[in-house]
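Protocol step 6 of 9: fold each sequence in the batch and record its structure tokens directly after the sequence line. For illustration, a two-sequence batch is reproduced in full.

Sequence one:
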Amino acid sequence: MISAHAKDSFDRIFRKAAQARLPVAAGDLCEIVPIAQADASRDSRVVVLTISSIVFRLLLILHFDEDDTTRGYYLNDGDEQPFQEAFLEICNLCCGAMNQELLRYFPDLGMSTPYVLNARCLPHLHELKPALVSSYSVVLNGAVRLAATVCVCTHAPLDFVADTSAVEEASGELEMF
């Protein structure tokens, strides 16, 4: 069982992380709107990341097509890095931002590395018996179209209220001494 407060908190945590990490540049527009789960599976591939705790398992599923617009957005001209490698890093940063927010309420979290699957696996999410499945359309700069699904499976009753209004601190950067 997952409370309405926890469902709302997962929604706000996802939105904050997506707006901070999916755009390439700070000034890029990131529009996020809820959609039906069936509409999210239009893309051919998905990146799956997992955040696990003693109480729950969260799957962040980012849907994408490797079209010219998406490739052009995430790869710089002359970039020799493969698209999938660059995109997986962006997805990992988004999930990491969610993980950091959740660590404020659940100190026992672990996060997986991203992996790519065919989107045909999505209709089988119900086999996990999730307490929450939310899907979103994510549009960057009015042109790059992604989708996202947040799936939360609980092992015990889950209730928390996330405060996502805090100013984000720099994270994931190496300091040189």
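Sequence two, same batch, same settings:
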Amino acid sequence: MRARPADPRSFPRHLLAATCLAFLAACSSGDGNSAPMAQASAGAVPADGRPFVVEEVAQFNEPWSMEFLPDGRLLVTEKSGALKLVEKDGTTTGIKGVPEVDHGGQGGLGDIALHPEFERNGWIYLSYAEAGDGDSRGAAVARAKLALGADGGGSLSDVEVIWRQVPKVAGRGHYAHRLAFGPDGHLWISSGDRQKFDPAQDMESNLGKVLRLNPDGSVPADNPFADQGEVAAEVWSLGHRNPLGMAFDAQDRLWVIEMGPKGGDELNLVERGGNYGYPIVSNGDHYDGRPIPDHDTQPQFNAPVVTWTPVISPSSLVFYSGDEFPQWQGDAFTGALSGQALVRLEFEGENASEAERFGMDARIRAVEQGPEGDLWLLEDGDGGALLRLSAPPVASPPAAG
């Protein structure tokens, strides 16, 4: 692993006053490429204003998602269809047997999740873009058994598609296809509107929805629209646009963060049967300039808890519970693509607000909490780096005399 050089731009200056014990690190020899705050004193904030040290662990080709294994190793997906295993020393090997993906635009291999009983049954879940007839395509979710090799790498077997977007449509945008297992053991899937707008309100389509399934892909009998037909039965909430982050908080509430149109990125508290209004309402407008009524004009739709205009293009969502940054326990983090930042959100019950924005000088595709409480980020695009964020080291006080 190597430390990232500090980027002194665009970090909140108020962080420098985070503690009365803070000191700046001793100046380095001057090329700007030394590890940030290697000599930090107790409670100090790194000289670039960020309260963490950044290490680059590995690089990938268009990485999209990551998931830690119980032994501390990491799985990373690449949009082209590769699934990589990252060892603790940062070396990477490939996993064979990944389903064929339709790679292009926003599509390709997407999210990855482990079954809650993965250590017993070996099931992993992958989302990806799948080609259909003619020029059509849509997201799919498959589960498979993961077997790891003794010397790295591994393979998938018993691959089975358990869910598909309906209908498949032209274009390669807004798949969303984030995966999460809830505290009740059900599989949750975010399904984007595929840039087709109206299907987000159509209960004969599962586009623009949040879905709740059993781990085998069957539909739970207590879903809110279970009596309205096969597709509607999958739906937990509707009226979403491009929900790219999905996570449960410590109180088992589901939060979804999604890209708005021209303005109006949203953080939503997802309720059973809730309708979040898109494309009828939004706090943004269409890209061609046509206005969309704001949420407050039609209060029958669920309003977002937080909105962003200008947009940040949120890409992921994780609630933090670790000890590496105890001051952030209970907060959430999202990666910002156009915002090129890591954004911290604070919560008070069912209310939330943006607390801090840390410039990362790169589009951030995914954020995860590591097994030791550190934060891990994936940069977007070719050569996208896997970054580990940890608290600054605490140096011993200088010797007396």
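Proceed to step 7 once all outputs are recorded. Observation for sequence two: The longest strand covers residues 136-148.
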